Amino acid sequence: MLNQHKILRVLQLITYLQSKPYKSIDQLSQFLTTTERTVYRYLDLLRECGFDLHKDSSQRYFIEKGEVEGIQFTNEEAQFLKQLVLSTGSKSKLKDSVLSKIYTGSELSMVASHLINVKNGKIVERLTRAMINKEQVQLKKYQSINTETISDRVVEPFGFTENYQTVMAYEPASEKNKTYNIDRIGSVEYLNQKFQNESKHEQQVMDVFGFAYNGQKHPVKLEMTMKEYLLLKAQYPLIAPFVKYETEKDKYVLEVEVNDLRVLVGFKIH
């Protein structure tokens, strides 16, 4: 979890340095809520990752936004980034390459923007701290699509799903493990109450379409034309390992278990 928090801070720092006005060490220290010594370590890390840090005559730091325009992620880098954000901050040249390209020209650029969004960034940070301290929180004004309501939810957060799109948490009121969309959380409030149900926490395994398990699995066998397959894969790249091309039929066949069939409405499922 500490690695996740550090990576999040690096992502936020990149965008902060790309925005005007330029930033002094004191401003960076306040932004990161850390010491000036630690700020210098973050700046050194950005240089190692390939960013060209500049200083003006007043010793204020900045990164030129246009310096990395036109760079594209390779498929290998995109996959590595997913693992990096969710698991480890280990040193490697591939990691540095990914970080230096994170805001440009890839299907994952929207994920970086999602993390840097001021509201969402604060929400992820507060949830991360609650997980580290094993404390309950209240999700304020959560907008539920299922119930079409806006309400406050007391939960015990214990993990994020891929790309920080949702948080996994146990809800004592319903006695269920659920996933909550980060975008639909108004804010996060600490309750100064330790976890009461840690033994009941269960990781939510998302399917290839991003749906959490809701009590029922649906086996899917779907035949697609090349166009249908490419369009579906463009939106849901995780289906790729479960698709095989059948030469005799000239069809792409998806065979996988999913938690929800909503995405496949309109397709003929065998």
* N to C succession of SSEs: HHHEEHHHHEEEEEEHEE
The residue fraction in helices comes out at 25-40%
Structural domains: how many: 3
How is the biggest beta sheet arranged?
5 strands, antiparallel
Structural class: alpha+beta
Low-pLDDT stretches: 67-71, 86-97, 102-111
Shape: flat
Distance between the termini: 41 Å
Instruction: Please write the CATH class name of the largest domain.
Output: Mainly Alpha
Question: Which percent band covers the strand fraction?
Answer: 15-25%
CATH superfamily of the largest domain, please? Winged helix-like DNA-binding domain superfamily/Winged helix DNA-binding domain
**CATH fold-level assignment of the largest domain:** Arc Repressor Mutant, subunit A
Can you list the strand order of the major beta sheet? 6-5-4-3-7
Tell me what the CATH architecture of the largest domain is: Orthogonal Bundle
Number of strands: 10
